[in-house]
From TrEMBL:
Keywords: Membrane, Transmembrane, Transmembrane helix. This is Inner membrane protein. The chain crosses the membrane at residues 6-23, 44-66.
Length: 75
């Protein structure tokens, strides 16, 4: 079994949780959502590398940059 292919499932779950937190009215929850989103970006990048899904890697790098901007704005 290819264990790296299974990495997409926790990446998806973390991403969904992050987006749910990003919709919160609480500043702390939104901040946590941005941090979880960065974790999700990292998981997707690792998965994309082993799946040779280079467009996914590029997208996740761009989204990570936006998430870092969000982290700075919520501080």
């Amino acid at each position: 079994m290819d264990y790296f292919s299974l990495l997409q499932w926790p990446a998806m779950v973390v991403n969904i949780l992050a987006v749910w937190l990003l919709t919160s009215r609480s500043k702390n929850k939104r901040h946590a959502g941005f941090l979880l989103s960065l974790l999700s970006n990292g998981l997707w990048i690792v998965w994309g590398w082993f799946a040779q899904a280079f467009a996914v890697i590029g997208l996740q790098i761009a989204l990570a940059a936006l998430n870092m901007h969000g982290v700075k704005k919520t501080d």
